[in-house]
Every structure is written in C-alpha cells, then in structure tokens.
Amino acid sequence: MRLQLATWQEVEAYLQRSTGIIMPIGSTEQHGPNGLVGTDAICPEAIAWALGERHDVLVGPTQNLGMAQHHLAFPGTVSLRPSTLIAVLRDTVGSLARHGFTHIFFLNGHGGNIATVNAAFAEIQAERSLGEHSGDELQLTLYNWFTGRRGRELASELFGDAEGGHATPSEVSLSWAAHPEAVKAVAMSPPIAPGGSAQCDARTFRQRFPDGRMGSDPSLASVEHGQRFLQAGVEDALEAYRAFLG
Amino acid sequence: MRLQLATWQEVEAYLQRSTGIIMPIGSTEQHGPNGLVGTDAICPEAIAWALGERHDVLVGPTQNLGMAQHHLAFPGTVSLRPSTLIAVLRDTVGSLARHGFTHIFFLNGHGGNIATVNAAFAEIQAERSLGEHSGDELQLTLYNWFTGRRGRELASELFGDAEGGHATPSEVSLSWAAHPEAVKAVAMSPPIAPGGSAQCDARTFRQRFPDGRMGSDPSLASVEHGQRFLQAGVEDALEAYRAFLG
Amino acid sequence: MRLQLATWQEVEAYLQRSTGIIMPIGSTEQHGPNGLVGTDAICPEAIAWALGERHDVLVGPTQNLGMAQHHLAFPGTVSLRPSTLIAVLRDTVGSLARHGFTHIFFLNGHGGNIATVNAAFAEIQAERSLGEHSGDELQLTLYNWFTGRRGRELASELFGDAEGGHATPSEVSLSWAAHPEAVKAVAMSPPIAPGGSAQCDARTFRQRFPDGRMGSDPSLASVEHGQRFLQAGVEDALEAYRAFLG
Amino acid sequence: MRLQLATWQEVEAYLQRSTGIIMPIGSTEQHGPNGLVGTDAICPEAIAWALGERHDVLVGPTQNLGMAQHHLAFPGTVSLRPSTLIAVLRDTVGSLARHGFTHIFFLNGHGGNIATVNAAFAEIQAERSLGEHSGDELQLTLYNWFTGRRGRELASELFGDAEGGHATPSEVSLSWAAHPEAVKAVAMSPPIAPGGSAQCDARTFRQRFPDGRMGSDPSLASVEHGQRFLQAGVEDALEAYRAFLG
Amino acid sequence: MRLQLATWQEVEAYLQRSTGIIMPIGSTEQHGPNGLVGTDAICPEAIAWALGERHDVLVGPTQNLGMAQHHLAFPGTVSLRPSTLIAVLRDTVGSLARHGFTHIFFLNGHGGNIATVNAAFAEIQAERSLGEHSGDELQLTLYNWFTGRRGRELASELFGDAEGGHATPSEVSLSWAAHPEAVKAVAMSPPIAPGGSAQCDARTFRQRFPDGRMGSDPSLASVEHGQRFLQAGVEDALEAYRAFLG
Amino acid sequence: MRLQLATWQEVEAYLQRSTGIIMPIGSTEQHGPNGLVGTDAICPEAIAWALGERHDVLVGPTQNLGMAQHHLAFPGTVSLRPSTLIAVLRDTVGSLARHGFTHIFFLNGHGGNIATVNAAFAEIQAERSLGEHSGDELQLTLYNWFTGRRGRELASELFGDAEGGHATPSEVSLSWAAHPEAVKAVAMSPPIAPGGSAQCDARTFRQRFPDGRMGSDPSLASVEHGQRFLQAGVEDALEAYRAFLG
Predict the structure, then answer these.
(1) Which of F15, F35, F78 sits opposite E95 (nearest CB)?
(2) Is F130 touching C (CB cutoff 8 A)?
(3) Measured between CA atoms, how close is C95 to chain F, in angstroms?
(4) Optimal mutation site among F98, F99, F136, F138, interface A, most CBs of chain A within 10 A
(5) Angle (CA) D192 D195 D196, round 5°
(6) Is the pLDDT of residue F135 over 70?
(7) What is the rounded distance in angstroms from the CA atom of residue A129 to the CA atom of residue F71?
(8) How far apart are CA C236 and CA C216, in angstroms?
(9) Helix crossing, A39-55 with A169-178: angle to 10°?
(10) Which cofactors must be present for this protein to function (chains A, B, C, D, E, F) (predicted)?
(11) pLDDT tens digits, residue range C186-234?
C-alpha cells in the first residue's frame, strides 16, 4: 500500500495490523552520460512499491533530495545540506511516531546519504535519551538496496569489475526498468571510468571524475537486467524488513 | 522534460535554451474520507509533468512533504516544520542557482505551504540583500494550481458551494485522474462538511473537522472531472509560467 | 492598558478579566521621500495604543523590526531574516502563553511580514501538534490594519489610484498623525511612482523603485487625513479583535 | 535624530557626516510592585532620544525584548532566548553595516542582556574573523546607562543602600520621568527587598524574590529624581559614545 | 608536536614544512565495569601524541565529547547531539583552514562518532560546493584507530571472540597503558557480555546491555597489552596519515 | 576524581555523596611569544585535577575549545562560534542533569568565554523557565581561576604592572608548572606589550597586538611561580566551589 494513494482511514486500519513502514530515500544528482538524475530515488522507490504491493507493507512518499554536495558541479544535481536532511528526517519520524509507527525502515538508494541518515537517527534518539523518554520504543534503520546479497551477486555475475561505485550498470538498469521511456544510448570513453574517493567538494569531484562516473561502465545497462535487479531488490529488502520487524 | 529522467548533459543542453524550471511542491496529509494522502503532491506533479512534456519545460523532482502540522491528528499525515521547509527550499534554490537557473517556479498544491514558501523566498533573498550580492538576478515565485482562472471556473461550474476549502472535489478528481487505480467510493456524512479556520493546532483541527474535510463534498469527484482539471491546470500554469519568464 | 506601562500585578489582575492581548508589529524600512523609516511600526502602534486605552485591552511592546530585506538598498532599513523573526515570535508567544494568554492578536503594519508571521504561527503550532500537546488551546492571528474595511474605503475616497502599494499616502498620513513633529514636505517626481512586484532582492528592488515608493503619491498625505485613518483603524481593529476573541 | 522619524534620504545625508549610531536595547519584564514592565527599555530609550536630539546623533528603534528568562514566573514578562537575541543583533548589525555604519553603540537598560549581547558581538565578529574579512573595521560596543559615573553617584546620594539590584529606585524614577502618566503608589513590604543571585530559572527566582524586587526600595522613586537621572544619563552616555567614536 | 604545548610562532614555522594536522576525537561515555569513561578519548589521544612526537606531526587538542546518546542511561556519560558535534567540527575545520591547513586527519576512538563526523565533513564541503568555492582544496578524513590492521590482528590474537564491540579488552588495555593509575579490578558476569545493536535510545540500550559491555570480556585487559596496542596503533595511524597526505 | 578515569559505577557511587561537579573550560589560542596555545585550557585543568584529587570532587573532561575569534589571525588558534559553544554547554549540562547532577561549576581559564558561557546558562534556564519546569533546581556557575583573591595577590606581588591582560606571566607560569617540558625562552620586545580592547575582529586584533600579548611581560614567567599559582588557584577555587554548593 502506498501512503500517497491511501486515505487516512486506510492508514488507521493498517496501523491495527502493523506499525512498520518503508520510506524510500534517494537523491537528485548526475549519474554519468546515460544515467538518470533521479536514479537514486527511482531505484528504492521501484523496489519499495513492488514490495509494498505484494506484501501489504505501507510505503511512504519518496524523499527525492539527498546529500549530494559532491555532485554539484554537474548541472541538474540538487543537494540538501546534511543539517537540512537531518531536520527533514526528524520531522518525518516525529510525524510517523505520533501516529503510532514504531518501526521505520528507510530504503536508501544513495551511498552519500548513509552518514547523514545515521546522524539523523542519533539526533532523534538523543532527544529521547536526554529527556528520560518513557514512551514506546522507536526503531529506525537504514537499508541500502545496493548492498543486498542477491543484488550484489547479480551485479557481479553480469558486470564484474565494470560495476564500479557510481553510475553503476546495476542502478542504471534498475532505473530504466522503472522508466523504459528514459533509456539513453550514449557512448562511453573510456569504457570503464576512473575510480577514487568522493569525499571532497564539488569542484574537486568533477576534476577527478570528468563525466560523472566512478569506476563503472554503465553502457552495459539494459531494461532486462533492470527487471532482474528489481526482483532481487524486492527479495533482499523484504528479508531485511522482516528481520527489522523482529 | 523531467529532471529525474534526464542526464546531466541533457540538463546542460537545456540551460542553453532556457534558465527556467518548474518545481512541484505538495504535502502528505489527510484529505478526508475519499481523498488520497498524497493529493497535494500528486496534483501539481501531474500538471507539471504534462506541461513539461508538451512545452519543453524542465520539471524538477516533487517536494512531497509540506507544512501540514494542523493535519497531524489524522494518521498518515507527515509534516515538516516551517523552519525545515525553509531550509529545504534554501538548499534547493541554492543548488539550482549554482547551475545557472534564474527563474524558479514552484507549482504548489497545498494552501498550507504558501506562507512558509514565501518566507523561504525572503530568507534566500535576504542572504543576497544583506551581502550586497552582485550576481545575477534570481527570480522565485509560487504558483498555486488551485487558484488558476480556468480551474476556478470549472470547479464553480461543476461543484458550486460543494467545492469547499480542503479535500475539495476538484483536487480529489485531479488526483484520481493521475491515479485511477486509487479511486475510492466512500459515503460522506454530512454531504457538505462544516467550514472554518485551519489556523490552529492538530488537536483543535480534528475537533473542528472530524472527518478531515473543510466545507466540501468530495463525493462529487470523478476521474472524468479530473481530466478536465488537468487540462485546465496545464493551461493556467503555462500562462503563469510564461508571464513569470517575462 | 500598555504592558510597558503596567506593573506585573496589574497584568495579573488583567488576566482575571481577559486572556487576550494585542501585539503591534511593524518594520524599520524606507518609505519613500517623505515617509518615515518607522512608518510600519508607528501605524499599528498608534492604533493599538488608542484601542487599548479606550477598550481595556492589554497592548504589548511594539516589534519594531520586521522582514524588510527588499528595502536594504536604501539607507536606514533594518531587516530581520525570516528565520530570526520566527524565533522572536516563538519566544514572544511562548512567554505570553506561559502567563495564561490564550488569544494573541498581532496588529501588523507591514505587508512584508505577512508570510513570515504566518509561518511563525505554524512553527509554534507544529511544536504542539507533533507532541500531542494536551494543554489549553492557543489562538494566534495576524491582522493588517491597512486591510480594514473602513480604512480601505477612506483611502479610496481620499486618494483613489494614488494610494499605491508602498509608502502610501494613507500610512504616511497615519504616521504623521502620531508624530506631527516629523512631517516632511518633499516634492515627488513622478507624482505617482511606478508599480511592480517586491518579491526580489534589495538591489533589484531599488532598480525597480528608485525613490522607494511603489505606485503611490504620498505627497497627498496630511496629519488631518492621518487622524481619520487612526479613527478608522481603531474601529476596524476592534471589530477584528472582538471577532477573534469569539 | 530618531531613525524611526527620518526618511531614507535624511539617513543618507547623516551618513555623510557620521557613521555612528546609538541603538537602545532593553527588556520587557516585571519590575516589582511599582515599577513598569517596560522600565529597561524606557530608560535607555529616554536617554538616547534626548542625547540624539541635542547632539545630532542618529538613534535607532528600541529593542523592547531582551533576555529575561528568570522573570518569566511573573505575568507580563516576555523573554527572548539568548540564541534568538543573538540572531536579532546579527541581523540588526548586518543591516546597519551594509549602509556604511561602522560604530554601533548599544545603549542598554538591562543587566540580564549583557552576556548575550557580548556573545552576539563575538558571533558577528567570528563570521568576519573566520573568513579573513577584508572590509571596513566594524566597532560594536555595549554601554549600560546604569553604570555611568554621574548616575551612580546620584543613586548613591539619593538612595544609598536602598538602590539594590533590580527594580531600583533610580530606574523606576527615570521611567516615571519618561512616562509620568504611569506613576504608581504602592506600599512595599519589607521596605528593602532581600538580595541574592538572579542566575537561576524563573521558578527559583520567584521563590527568592517574591515581589520581584532585588535588594531595593523603589518606593523612594519620583518623577523629579527621574529627571535628574535622565540628565545624568545623557551626559554619561554622551561621554561614552564620544570615546567610542574615538 | 602538540598544538596545546606550542607557541603560535612554532605553529607558523610548522606550516612552512607541512599543512597536515591530526585531531584526536573521542567520547565521554560508560565503558562497562572496568573501563574508563574517557576510554574513547584517551586511546586516540595516546596514539596521536606518540605519533606526533616521533614523526613531527602537529596534534591538535582532543575533542573529549562525542556522540554518545545511547549511553546516557549510565551515569557519567556526556553526549553531544549530532547537530552540535557538526557545528563543533565546522568551526574547528574553519579555524584550521584559515591558517592554511589543507589536510585534517581526525583520529577517532568511538564508533558512534563515525556517521556524525562524516556528515560534518559533508556539511563543510557543501558550503564550499554550493558557492563555487575557488580556494585551495581541503581534505578531511576520519580514521578509526580500532580498525587498523595491526591492532585488529593483535586483538584477534590476544582476545579472539572476547573482543566484542564496546568496552573491548583492547581499548580498555590501551587506556590503561596511558593511565596505569586508573586500572580497575572488577569481576564480570557473564564473562562475555551479550551482543546486539546499539542503534536505539538510552533506555533501550541499558535494557539490552545491563552492565554497559557489548559482546566483550574486558577482564582480559592489561597495561602490558595496552602498550602493544599503542605501538600497533601508532604504526597503523602513521600509515594511514601518510597515505592521506598523498 | 577525574570522570575520564572513572567507571560508571564509580560515578554512580559518587552521586550518592555529592551532586556537584567541576567542569574545566578553556580555549585554544595564541598566547604570545612564549605562552602555549593551550594555556587557557591547561590552567583550569591543572587546578581542577589537583582540587579534585585532594578534596573528593568529581572533575569532568576539559572543554579545550572556547570562544577565541579575535585570535584567529594567529596560527594555531581554534575558535568556536558563540552559538556553537552554547550548544556544547547545553548538551553537556543536559547530560549531567539527566544523571542527577544539580550543581555544575565551570572552572574557566579564558576571559573571552565569560559572556558566551553566561549566555549558555541563560539559554539552558530559559528552556526550563518557558516550560514551567517542575523538576529539581539546577545550579550553574562560571568561576574564573584568574580572578581568585589569592592568585590576584600573588600576581600583583610577583609581576605588578607587567601582569597585563592576555598572555600574562601568571597564566604562562601556571601552564609551565603543569607542562615543564614545554617551557620556552623567548625574548620580548617591548618588554611590556601595549594594552587595549580585544572586542574586535581578528585582523584588527593582530594590528593592535602584533605579537599577541596584551599589556603583559610573560618573560617573567617560571615553573616555580607556576607552582605557587597552582596552589593559590586550588585554594581559591575550592572556596568558591564550597560557597556554590552552599
């Protein structure tokens, strides 16, 4: 069930059978010559929607903007500061907790969000911990679809070393499976982009990674591959979500 | 063109022919017995996507969360504090301005966002005004799809006094046109909900408006009506956008 | 009764007979060639003081600084950022609510404050709504003296199209009635200033409105007119305040 | 010259002959059984207005709210948090500096503001110091009218040990000289209130100081004494202001 | 060279031969029955001081407080909120960058700091990336002493499965080597504490981990072991620091 | 007892016999040609450690960074903004209060911290005062070691006018007594540095005080003198701490 497509009474009824929710979180940032700016939001959204429909899990609205400061030298990137994203997550979790949700599972599509989302969880729990909060336990977790076992094995099988670290053929494939109308045919040079660290500012990042790719060859991407990643992603995420609910 | 479905090079090329962009902004909040929680995000998104496709305007990712504190006593509502939304918009505009966008048109679906979005514009401009900023002019505007002339006339013709102020048949229709799979058949009692002011906290709001509607009868909504609102909304918004670009 | 001229015991006694208060809020910003920098604070202050004295309503200290970033290219303008003004209002309301005030009526003299003050109200209520606040209802409203019916009719009768949007003859008149020692005789050219939008940064604003006026001819202002605006303003505001108290 | 009663062109002309300005800052807080809630704002305002008129110094609008958290258990007190007051002063100074003011003299009426105002000055200068600011020197100072030599001597001569630390006969006198219509005749018991520290929360403060006075007997106050404090205060402040301008 | 024990001229001279600096960062939090509250600060400080002395690297003052919200149900824990720690690191890095430091190496002793410190780095770089910063490259990295190869191997060899995740025998040993006067002899029951996740609030954490240990048996700690961890830690950190300087 | 060297059970036991704690707070800033960058942290830390050991008082971790913006033009200075230091102190006090500490005594080594620390105390108490906090009384105080009677007399006796205001021979002596390995022999010219105000930005400060000293001759410093200042400082601070506990 998608929260955006439900009524409040349907949410009220859902809360009677579960207090867990999946919140997709991504980013709006360059993904190389043939990858979509929305890749990191589209991928977890596609997985979450499929999972939610098949397994009666409520899926909240996608957080389309993430922490993408290092990509800002490429047109189209829109980044939140970490402090802003922390505030967004604090208000999001506060709203959900008010309704009685106790297990909030952020399904993430962007490595650059990981530190900030975990810092946000600590900010939220700190407020409770400083005040000797005596209310219900609140469980928060971040799950990265791209680290699921099935998906990792598939990427390794299909792309080997050409998977790389950003604008990977696996995420480009998955985003294309969700949006086949947006498939792009673009030549890459060199076939596999240089690798390196992304912990720097935007100007330095673009000097290191001139076309935006990091160690990948996304010309290997296809809609068909993407459909397999979607299936693997749903199974991986479902396993993680069930473990989280305990 | 949707930013989420473009590559950075496509954005770079777009910037050669236009420095304007449309950013849909909505809310995630209860919309009465048959309205979707995502109504206020779905409506401007649907209008923006149609407009963007037909008229070569770049459309950014939808801001799904808005200022909805007064709806928090209804399950499913997720609200940002005004200070959080101001930070989100400051970072969004800062990212876009860095790429050279000069005219940023927020296409809004939620009355509760208006004050905060305008405060955010002032926060952004204040930073420039205090520092004797000498860069390019930056134009920001908020346009509410539900105040467009064509849409207003259509609502008046179709629904008259049953349009009301929240969970209106026009917005419910438009959201259903975008998501026909989510149409709900729910009886309303009384047919037209009581009206009143929404400037209060969540507990008071729910006391005043027990099923979430404000002065409306959304049982009049239909997909067919929604298609007409979509068409009217695109024309209204296009007119406003062109006037904004000057 | 003016709070600034009362003792705490007098306030304690007032709270026995009323939990409402009027808080004047203005701005410190240029008002064209013959308008006072303090116009927007002086006008609501004058109305509030007269109303408070005649009708036993407590009137708090005037908030002299408002959101005036667009006027910063004119010497003498002092602006708060929206985020700062929100913090000021949050602390002001928090202090008053602690004493038992339940109805806080901000009597405003500056259009540029409207969005930010309403965002501040939402920020304050959000804190209550997120926390399932179970205390007393807290009512906050913003009333703009310059939108009162009697005042609008008087401006229309006296000035017609020369009223304009900023540095209007009506507000200049009222400020002069409060401070006749500060009347200025200055020639205007052109008689009626150009109109336009104020939603921009300070540099752009000054380019659009070279002498600071927007669409007005304040050379029509006079102390005598101001006395009539004061009387109309008191009646308009009293009506609004009584409706607010319910 | 009062900024609130000047036009922007008059400010522009003033800046040709001086880049100094006096900003009165006070508080809105209980001042015992016969002292006005606005005492701490009224006193520096009265001194600043007299000084400004006699000596051609520009005087900005009064900051009526200060840091008065410890007085919040007495009705009528309105306090800003220190962080809020810092933001107010940052924006105030930023606005004035933009116009070319280089020497900003805060004329203070409230001991409780001293730490926060000095912290605000450091916050403002830190922004410049961290960034290797290369612009004009910006001089900020805080002057407390109640520590001037002439005023101290007068208080000692008139009241001796009955002067005390809060709700003093000297400040009550001065506020009455500015507002003779607000003189109150109230019996005090005991004649001289107990002394002690104000560094605590509001509940503790009221326990320590049941009627709000700290070590003072303000029944000794009079309008006539107040006129002498006004004269002494103007001379003290003028001396300090001239030394500040160097 | 320790910054705290140097003069500013010595720092000036150091900057001629290197623009790198090591900043120890820890936490103040419970470490089980025989571990010191300061363990996480003492360990990186001891390694940094030894490294700095032997290899002419400047070592800044230790950040003693970290993000330890989950330990707050144990007396003695002092935690910063993530947002506070981000502000501390922003100011620290801003100060160092102003002096010309280009490579700032945070030597960390606390797993709970990792997300927040990386979020802080992103906050700092975002400010540069949003503004098209054209200054020198600024390199920031976080190195956790407890993940160094030599140290890991030593812990494995000495403690095997009894190393655990918090209040480990390796960190307790190292802190004792730095402070032999603080060695404690305390019986543990059970010998190896239960394991689990620390991503929760303080009350939940204490329920999960009643004596504060996570999966460890720190009764195996000794000063002698600690001396070996110090030596291994210096070699591991030096290798990482040199790689960071490139 | 030093908190950093205690276990949580030892802290728990301490709280049975006392709810007071001493928190050393300093700064990291230039101290002239022969003074250590860490002087302002080292001095209160040395006094606190000696006091704590001799008199069974718990001493928390040293806050090494303070408000030192005016020293930022000298290499090695690391400053927190006042707003950052306020947040650090708010979290520190919040953590300690949660454990039951009621009397928190900040032992300070830096004049530049005074305003900000007092503003922080007000920020903390304001949160309690606005909310009608009904918990235990929380006492906070700032004590500056360099204003103790015994220390003042000793400085006067040993150094007379050469004591000055910053980089004084007394603080340099005390820091050397704590770290004899860091004694520096540096010639000073002129012997006594010029005096003046430190309330300015960093660039201005360095113009006024070219070698960093303010009115002092720290060539008079010695380890022996420092040992006497340590003894005097412990006695002064103990007296103040006992008075604070009441």
Answers:
(1) F78
(2) yes
(3) 6
(4) F98
(5) 170
(6) no
(7) 37
(8) 23
(9) 60
(10) Zn(2+)
(11) 999 999 999 999 999 999 999 999 999 999 999 999 999 999 999 999 9
Asked whether E154 and E221 are in contact (CB, 8 A), the reply is: no
Share of chain D above pLDDT 90, in %: 97
Q: Checking DSSP bridges between strand E139-144 and strand F103-108, what pairing results, if any?
A: unpaired
Number of C-beta neighbours around residue C13 at 10 A: 13
Share of chain A above pLDDT 90, in %: 97
Structure tokens at F53: 């050991």
pLDDT at C213: 97
DSSP type of residue F239: H
What token pair was written down for B65?
Answer: 């969360």
Domain holding E215, by residue range, is 3-245
The CA-CA-CA angle for residues C70, C232, C163, to 5°, reads: 40
CB A45 within 8 A of CB A26: yes
Please indicate if any CB of chain B lies within 8 Å of the CB of E130. Answer: yes
User: Which tokens is D173 given?
Assistant: 């006198």
Distance CA E159, CA E172 (A): 12
- Whole-angstrom distance, CA of residue C181 vs CA of residue D1: 12
Residue A176, classed as helix, strand or coil, is helix
Task: Round to whole Å and give the CA distance between B77 and B204.
Answer: 15
Name every chain C residue with its beta carbon within 8 A of the beta carbon of B67: 119, 122, 126
**Residue in E22, E37, E64, E179 to test binding to F, most F beta-carbons within 10 Å:** E37
Q: Say how far apart CA E130 and CA B91 lie, in whole Å.
A: 8
What ipTM does this complex have? 0.97
| C-beta separation of A198 from A167 below 8 A | no
Give me the residues paired with residue F24 across strands: F107
**Cβ within 8 Å of B, A 11-30:** 11-12, 15, 28, 30
pLDDT digits (tens), chain B, 246 positions: 999 999 999 999 999 999 999 999 999 999 999 999 999 999 999 999 999 999 999 999 999 999 999 999 999 999 999 999 999 999 999 999 999 999 999 999 999 999 999 999 999 999 999 986 566 789 999 999 999 999 999 999 999 999 999 999 999 999 999 999 999 999 999 999 999 999 999 999 999 999 999 999 999 999 999 999 999 999 999 999 999 999
Give the total number of structural domains in chain D.
Answer: 1
Query: In the structure encoding, which two tokens stand for residue B221, read together?
Result: 């909504």
Measured CA to CA in angstroms, residue A55 lies from A44, A48, D195, E222 at distances of: 16, 10, 69, 52
The verdict on a CB contact (< 8 Å) between B32 and A81 is no
Rounded-to-integer distance, Cα C192 and Cα F223, Å: 78
pTM: 0.98
Rounded Cα distance between F127 and C235, Å, is: 39
Neighbours of C98 (CB within 10 A): 19
Cβ C95–F130 below 8 Å, yes or no? yes
Amino acid at A175: S
Which residues of chain F are within 8 Å of residue D115 when distances are taken between CB atoms? 114-119, 122
Indicate which CATH number applies to the domain containing C87.
3.40.50.10310
Residue D55 C-beta-side C-alpha neighbours within 13 Å? 19
Cβ neighbors of B139 (< 8 A, separation 6 or more) are B102, B103, B104, B244, C200
Please answer whether residues D36 and D121 qualify as being in contact, where contact means their C-beta atoms are separated by less than 8 angstroms.
no
What is chain E's Cα-based Rg?
A: 18
Dist. CA D77–CA C134, nearest whole Å? 24
Interface mutation target, options B83, B106, B207, B245, chain C, most CBs of C under 10 Å: B83
Q: How far apart are the first and last CA of chain A?
A: 21
DSSP for B164-205 reads -SBS-HHHHHHHHHH-GGG------SSSS-------S-HHHH
Tell me which DSSP letter residue A202 carries.
H
